[in-house]
Amino acid sequence: MDDLHVSYRVCLAGTRHGGGPAALVRLLRDGREARTRVVQAVRGVTVSACRGELIGIVGGNGAGESTLLRAIAGLIAPDRGRIFVRERPSLLGVDPGVMGDLSGERNILLGCQAMGMTAHQARNCLPEVAVFARLDEARDRPLRTYSTGTAQRLRFAITTVVPREILLIDEALATGDAWFQRRSAQRLQEPRSEVSTMFLVSHCLGAVLDSCQRAVWLGRGTVRMVGVADDVVAAFRDQCREEPKAQATTEPTSTPCTGAGGDAS
């Protein structure tokens, strides 16, 4: 990524689409065009990834991490700057193409084939993917009946069983129980002769520390720090601790809260 800038527009009031409520807003506004605001999601990001690296991306809500991954995957066109890739990146949750009316088993077969496997290879991988996603008796049920966590586990299992040159993972490890998070981290640490480069966006800092060699800290769309994962996560945690203290000094004195606290993760 070379001096990458990405922005998008948000509607402040009214829209040309959206059904009845939107039509009412347009009527009240005498048919005038809705006002919009440009949001600068990514600002001048320059980061390189070497072959075989697993790079974590950390930051607060709205820091631009998800937008950055979508730009790398080619789903969003940058306003300025360039992205150079060796192969087509695969964004977890987009490429498998799962369908809600099909069973989990059928989604595994079609998802693996959509990502480049033959029908025979997909059938061979079916038991492994089903076990990893912990579908159990839900294998024959429609995907739309799954919980959000189970559906995301299935996407992760399909995407990571297929060899990919560049894999982009956005908050997949935050879904599911401790067993799945541990197994996911182990899978990312397995020898990656074919899946050579990964970007992992996660607000679970433990997952970044366990899985990644390097990390990028994004703040309001800009790169705050790039380096060894331990150093970047430590700096980000320090900043998270300082922000509440800075806010507290500007607020009126009140009765202290005795609730338990903890580190950002």
Helix and strand topology:
Blueprint: E1 2-13, H1 20-28, E2 35-45, E3 54-58, H2 65-72, E4 80-82, E5 90-91, H3 104-114, H4 119-133, H5 148-161, E6 166-170, H6 178-189, E7 197-201, H7 205-211, E8 214-219, E9 222-228, H8 229-248
Parallel strand pairs: 3-7, 3-8, 5-6, 6-7
Antiparallel strand pairs: 1-2, 1-4, 8-9
Helix pairs in contact: 3-4, 3-5, 4-5
Structural account:
The chain has 265 residues and is of the alpha/beta class. Helices cover 36% and strands 21% of the residues. It has 8 helices and 9 strands. The chain has helices at 20-28, 65-72, 104-114, 119-133, 148-161, 178-189, 205-211, 229-248; strands spanning 2-13, 35-45, 54-58, 80-82, 90-91, 166-170, 197-201, 214-219, 222-228. The strands form 2 sheets. A 6-stranded mixed beta sheet has the order 5-6-7-3-8-9, with helices on both faces. A 3-stranded antiparallel beta sheet has the order 2-1-4. Strand 8 (214-219) and strand 9 (222-228) form a beta hairpin. Helix 3 packs across helix 4 (119-133), helix 3 packs parallel to helix 5 (148-161) and helix 4 crosses helix 5 (148-161). The chain is globular and about 50 Å long. Residues 252-265 have low confidence and may be disordered.
